[in-house]
Structures are given as structure tokens and as C-alpha cells.
Design a protein that fits this description.
single chain; 397 residues; alpha/beta; Rossmann fold; two-stranded antiparallel sheet; 9 strands; 37% helix
């Protein structure tokens, strides 16, 4: 990945500092083809089949009913603290954000810990941060759209009844949150491994009667459209994740190759969502992409190669709980990327001690996870380098 001058300077400073311590789906078939040109964790390789992602029914009617109101309710711009007009969301970032009220539509690769880690980062920088969200087990975007907020309804996404009641993350359901207009950031992610084949099959494959029925573009468009209808300055992010190591016979290198190959698919989902909204008149709609998968994969590869041994990390097992889920350390890496993208600030200098969620998800464990200070600095430099050369994150670094 091509480095920016800023990233090189920061990386050099961090390296020199450490040396003192002896540490060395509603679109059409014309979906864009991923360029495959992004380098970072590894070279792009051919994709393999994985799980498809979404369940639900009644898709088309939901999308169509909201479409007519989208263009009339969208504000083309807002005025920032400096008094200058700026786009409601820009793919290349903008002024730093002093406060954010965020809603996560996620699953276990968001979990309960990641959103709370951002609270520690915001507090350290003097920024305000509120968060709510809904996470289940492998929850596809379609399930988030379909759920009406009741645990007694005919459809409750897998894991919601177990994960949400009484948790620190869940204070309101997604539809109610968007209708309030109070949330200025939403973060979406698809079920991991949801795409195989060309990006075009996201557009053409939509089976609302199936448990995992696709419709990714249509469902993402539904959520972003609804958010913008109630808050024209809302910023939308798509968090790219990763498949299971077991899909690649446990090979870390093959898994990392797939993460890189999938970048274009995530970007296509963002592109097609923007295109659909633009066709409805919302030409300023932007869906930024937080490259969680590539950043996580880069750190995993460094660990596997022994490059983190000086920080006490023997291998990649320090980052994986199992074949797909991450440890607190892995969440820390991803949280750095989320914070930098959402707040448009460098991750360098963020605290190495962060809040997590206590057992049962019902309380915050303040400062409950601590990363070695030298390792945290190294990870922050990696995240800065990756985001600096990936303007679609919205971080503007």
C-alpha cells in the first residue's frame, strides 16, 4: 500500500521511540468490477465461496415505499463548527468531529466491546460520544432492516434475544433510532463471507424468502435512505470484515489473500448503495468504507511472521478466539480504525487502556483491557498508515 508522507513520518517517529527501549441488493447487473489494486495485508487472490448473507421477507415493498420520500428530505450540506459549508459526508474526510452519536447494525465481529472502546478514545481526546446498536449472531443487513424492535414479534434475528436485553449497547432498536433523527453516524456490516463470485451477483441475487437471502444492496440502501430522511447530515459507514480461517484450511496467508480480494466487493456494496440513492435524487449520499478486514489481516500476518514477538505476541493466536472471532486485542485494532474514520482524527496517541463490557454485557468495565504501550503505539502507526492511503474510509488522514 502506498504510504503518505504523514504516515512515513509517524512510523519513523514511533520506530525511533521504540528503539530507546530496545524494541526493534436493489441495483442492476452493471455492478462495478473490483480493481484488485489495493495492497496491504497481502496480494489479491481469487475468491472462494462463502456464506451468503441475509434473511427475511417483504423486501421489495419496503424499499419501494421509502424511495419516493428520499430526495425531498435530504440536506445537501451542513455548516461545520468553523462556519464553512461542507458535504454531509465526504469519502475523503473533512474537519475533525468533536462529537458523534453512533448506531451500530452489526454482529459478533462488532460485538459489545468494540463500541465501548471508542468511548475511551473519544474521552481521551475531549470528544463526546454516545453509542447504541443491535448485534446478533452472523446478523445480515436484511435482518436488521426486517426487525421491528419487538422480541415478541414474528421475526427476531438470530441471537438478538440472547445478546440485546439488558446490554449496555442496546437502548433502542434500529428503526426507532433512525426515526429519531438523533444519530449522526450509522455503521453497517454484512454477515461475514456473504459474497462469492462477481459483484454483480449482489445486485441480481435477492431471495427475500430465504433465511440468508442476499439483497445486500437493497437492504443497505433502505437503512441509509431512512437515516437520511430523518437526519440529512447523517454519515454512513460500511465496516468490511473477514471470513473464517476454516474456509481456507486454516491457512493464514490464504485467508489474508481473500480479505484483500474482497475489498472490491465491499466497495461495490457502498458504490451501488450510493448509486441507488443518487438515482432517487440524493446525489450527495456517501457510504464510506472502514477497511476493518485488511487492517486486521495485516496485523494477523505480522503476528504470524513473528514481527510482533518483541511486544510479547508469539503468533496470530493472540488475535483469534477461534476460526473467525477476535480477541480483545483484535477488537482494539479494529476500534482504532473505527474511531479514526468516524472522528476524522489520527489514531496515534490514543490510550492503550480502554473500556470493555463486563461478563453478561450489562455493565461497562472501565479500563478493563490494557495493551502494552509499545505494542499499542505500533498498532496505531499501522492503522494510520492504512487509513492514510485509503481515502474511502472517510478519515481524511
Amino acid at each position: 500500500m502506498k504510504r503518505t508522507t504523514l504516515a512515513l513520518i509517524v512510523s519513523w517517529i514511533v520506530s525511533c521511540s521504540l528503539s530507546l527501549f530496545g524494541l526493534g441488493c436493489g441495483g442492476d447487473e452493471g455492478a462495478k468490477t473490483p480493481d484488485g489494486g489495493r495492497a496491504g495485508a497481502s496480494a489479491a487472490a481469487g475468491t472462494t465461496g462463502g456464506e451468503a448473507g441475509s434473511d427475511g421477507a417483504g423486501v421489495g415493498a419496503s424499499a419501494g415505499s421509502a424511495a419516493g420520500d428520499a430526495s425531498s428530505s435530504v440536506d445537501a450540506s451542513h455548516v461545520d463548527d468553523a462556519g464553512a459549508a461542507s458535504d454531509a459526508a465526504t469519502s475523503d474526510g473533512g474537519e475533525a468531529i468533536e462529537g458523534a452519536k453512533v448506531f451500530y447494525f452489526g454482529h459478533s465481529l462488532v460485538g459489545h466491546h468494540l463500541p465501548q472502546m471508542l468511548r475511551s478514545f473519544a474521552s481521551a481526546r475531549g470528544n463526546t460520544y454516545e453509542v447504541s446498536g443491535q448485534v446478533g449472531w452472523g446478523t445480515p443487513i436484511m435482518s436488521h432492516w426486517r426487525w421491528e424492535g419487538s422480541f415478541d414479534s414474528g421475526f427476531v434475528p438470530l441471537g438478538f434475544a440472547e445478546e440485546l436485553p439488558g446490554s449496555t449497547l442496546f437502548s433502542v432498536d434500529g428503526h426507532t433510532a433512525l426515526e429519531s433523527g438523533e444519530y449522526d453516524v450509522i455503521v453497517l456490516t454484512e454477515t461475514n463471507g456473504f459474497a462469492s463470485g462477481s459483484p454483480g451477483n449482489w445486485s441480481s441475487w435477492c431471495d427475500p424468502g430465504a433465511e440468508f437471502g442476499g439483497c445486500s444492496i437493497e437492504m443497505a440502501t433502505n437503512l441509509v435512505r431512512k437515516a437520511r430522511m430523518h437526519n440529512g447530515a447523517m454519515r454512513a459507514f460500511l465496516y468490511s470484515n473477514w471470513k473464517s480461517l476454516n474456509d481456507f484450511g486454516g491457512s493464514v496467508s490464504a485467508w489474508a489473500n481473500d480479505v484483500e480480494a474482497m475489498v472490491g466487493y465491499w466497495e461495490n456494496l457502498a458504490d451501488e448503495t450510493e448509486a441507488q440513492l443518487a438515482s432517487e435524487g440524493a446525489t450527495d449520499a456517501v457510504v464510506a468504507v472502514i477497511p476493518g478486514g485488511p487492517i486486521f489481516a495485516r496485523v494477523v500476518l505480522e503476528a504470524e511472521a513473528g514481527n510482533l514477538a518483541a511486544f510479547g505476541i508469539a503468533d496470530e493466536s493472540a488475535l483469534f478466539l477461534d476460526d473467525v472471532h477476535t480477541t480483545h486485542l483484535g477488537f482494539y485494532v479494529i476500534a482504532l480504525a473505527h474511531y479514526a474514520s468516524i472522528f476524522r482524527e489520527s489514531p496515534v496517541g490514543l490510550p492503550n487502556k480502554v473500556d470493555i463490557v463486563a461478563s453478561g454485557h450489562g455493565a461497562i468495565d472501565e479500563g478493563g483491557f490494557e495493551v502494552d504501550a509499545a505494542l499499542a503505539a505500533h498498532l496505531q502507526a499501522i492503522v494510520l498508515e492504512e487509513l492514510s492511503s485509503y481515502p474511502r474510509s472517510g478519515a481524511g488522514l
